[in-house]
Amino acid sequence: SESITVGELAKRMGVKATDLIRVLMKQGMMVTINHPLDVDTAAILAADFGYEIENVAIDLEEIVEAAPDAPESLEERPPVVTIMGHVDHGKTSLLDAIREANVIAGEAGGITQHIGAYDVERNGRKITFLDTPGHEAFTAMRARGAKVTDIVILVVAADDGVMPQTREAINHSKAAGVPIIVAINKIDKPDSKPDRVKQELTEFGLQSSDWGGDTTMVEVSAKKRLNLEELLEMILLQADVMELKANPNKQAKGTIVEAKLDKGRGPVATVLVQEGTLKLGDYCVVGVHSGRVRAMQNDRGEKVLEAGPAMPVEVIGLSGVPDAGDVFVAMKDEKQAKEIATLRQIKQREMELAKHSKLSLDDLYKKI
Ligand code: GTP
Ligand code: MG
User: Domain of life here (predicted)?
Assistant: First the structure.
C-alpha cells in the first residue's frame, strides 16, 4: 500500500508507461511496468510530468480516511461543548467556575495548565469544554470542515443583553447545525434583566423552554456560582438526546484545538481526540507534519498514557506546529506517516509557487 507500480502511475497520469520507463532509465533505473515505486519517487516523477501530486497522494490519503465504524463498535462518549458569547459576558468566568467546582481537592501537583480544552466530571460522566479564543478559531475550524463541537453554550450577560458577538455566535452555531444552550449570566447583578434577554433572543429564533419554546436557557451567575449544576445537567440531557457515540477501539483521529512552539519542549499541540484511542508512542500525521506521541498530558498537567474519544490532551513529539483545525491521525507505520506529511508539504509548496507565479504575472500586467 506504500508503493505504486510504474504501470499504475502512468495510467493515473494518463501517460504511456514506456515514456515513464524512459525517464526512469535516464535516471539510471532499469525498471519494468510492474516495478514498484516508493511514494517519494512517484511524487517526483509526477511533478516531472507536470502532474499534480494529488493524483499520487490519493492512495495514501485513503489510508487516513478511515472506513465508517460498524454500529456495534460505537460506545457512548462525552459531549464536546464550546462556550461562546459577547466580550466580557463572562465566558471565562463561567468555565473557571465550572472547573473549580470540579477540581478534586489535593490534586497532584495542583498545577493547572491552560491547554484550551478541559474535561469536567459530574456524577461519573464527563463533559469536555473548549475554550476557543474568540470566534475566529471556531470559524477557521468550521471552514476546514472540522466539526468538533456538539453543543454551544451561549453566554449572554443579563445586564447587557444580546450584542453583536452574541448574534455572531448564534449564526455560527446555526450554520454548523450545533444546538445552543443559553446561559444567562450575571443574574447576581442588581440591574440584571434575564427576561429581557429571553425576549431579545426570540428575535433569533431562540425561544426559552419555559416560554413554550425549545431552547434551554439557564439563569446563572459565574461569580456567585448560581445554577451551575443545573447548567451541567442540561448539557448532559442534551447529550443524551444526541446519543453521542464513537469507536474507542481503533487508531485515534482528532482535531487540533491549538498549538504553539515551546522553547524547551518544541511543538506542543492540544488535540481533541474524536475517534479511537490515542496512545503514547503512536505515530501520527497532522496537516503537513508528522511525529510520534512522546508525551501526553491532560488539562490538569497530569501525564496520561492514552486518550479516548472527546478527551483533550496536550501532545509533544510533532515535527512542526500545526494549525488549529488540522486533522490529527494516529498511524501504526512511521514511514507512512512521514510520507503523507512529505506529500502534503510538496503539494503545499506547489500551491504556494502557483500563487506566487500568479502574483508576479499580475505585477507584470500592472507595469504594462
Ligand atoms: P472575553 O474573554 O474578554 O470575551 O470576556 P469573557 O466573556 O470571558 O468574560 P470574563 O469571564 O472575563 O468576565 C468579564 C467580567 O465580568 C469580569 O470582570 C468578571 O468578573 C465579570 N463577571 C463574569 N461573570 C459574572 C457574574 O456572574 N456576575 C458578576 N457580577 N460579574 C461577572
Ligand atoms: Mg474570556
Answer: Bacteria
DSSP 268-313: EEEEEEEESBEETT-EEEETTEEEEEEEEE-TTS-B-SEE-TT-EE
* Grid coordinates belonging to 123: 456524577
CB of 284 closer than 8 Å to CB of 337:
yes
CA 302–ligand 1 middle distance (angstroms): 28
Could you tell me what percent of the chain has a pLDDT over 90? Answer: 48
Rg of the chain, C-alpha, whole Å: 25
Q: 283-311: per-residue pLDDT in tens?
A: 999 999 999 999 999 988 899 999 999 99
pLDDT digits (tens, 9 = 90+) for 2-21: 678 888 888 877 888 998 89
* CA–CA separation, 246 and 274 (whole Å): 7
Please, are residues 86 and 160 in contact by the beta-carbon 8 Å criterion?
Answer: yes
Helix or strand or coil: residue 257? Answer: strand
262 pLDDT band, cuts 50/70/90, is very high
Closest C-alpha among 228, 230, 85 to residue 154: 85
Contact 231, 183 (CB under 8 A): yes
Ligand 1 atom closest to the Cα of residue 134 is 4
Q: How many C-beta atoms surround the C-beta of residue 77 within 10 A?
A: 22
Ligand closest in space to the Cα of 96: 1
CA of 298 to the centre of ligand 2 (A): 21
Q: 91 - beta bridge partners?
A: none
Q: Which ipTM did the prediction report?
A: 0.98
Q: Is 55 annotated as a binding residue?
A: no
Query: In this structure, are strands 151-157 and 180-185 parallel, antiparallel, or unpaired?
Result: parallel
